[in-house]
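Reviewer 2 asked us to include a model.

Predict the structure of this chain.
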Amino acid sequence: MSYFSKFPLVKRNGVTTLDITRRPKISKSISAYQYLPYTVEEGMRPEDVAFLYYDDAELAWLVLLANNIIDPYTQWPKSSGNLDAYIKKQYATASGTTGDAVIVWAQNTAITNNIKHYKSKFVSDVKINHATYTANPSAEWIPVRMYDYEFTLNENRRQITLFNKNYMGQISELLEKSLNGQ
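Predicted model (C-alpha cells):
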C-alpha cells in the first residue's frame, strides 16, 4: 500500500496533482485490537521497524502515522551516539563548553545549573522547577539533570504502537476515508 496512492487529486493553476498537504488521522477510528505495542531497539529507524513487522520498508510511513510522528528527526528515538551529539549541540551554550565536556557537564552531580527540574520521590509525574525548589528545599525532591532528562525522553520514545498487520485492509480504507474528508 503506497502512502501517496490514497491522496486525493486537486487542481491548482490548471494542473492536476496530488494533495499532499493533508495529514490523515485514523487512530480514533481504530479499536484497541488493531494496535500492537512495539519497542524500538537501539539504532533502528522507521524503515527497519516496517521491514521487520510488515515485511516492507516502504511502509515506514505507517509506523510514523500510528505514532503521530510528523518529524522523525526529532520525534523518533535517537541512537546513543546521536543522542550524545544532540546533547552536545543543545546544551553547549548553557554549559559554556563544547564536545564531550558538554556531556560531562550535563551529568555532573556537583553542580546545580544543569538541573532541568526536580521530581517527587513519591509521585514520579510531579515535577517542580528550580525556582520553586530553591524557595522550599526538601529531601522529597530528586534533581533531574539535563542528560538524564534527555535520556529518559529518548527512552520513552522507544515505546511505540504499530497498526496490527492483520487489519491492513481496514486501515487502508480508513486512511482513504480520512484523506477524502469522510
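The two ends are 20 Å apart (CA to CA). The longest helix spans residues 146-157. We have added this to the supplementary material.
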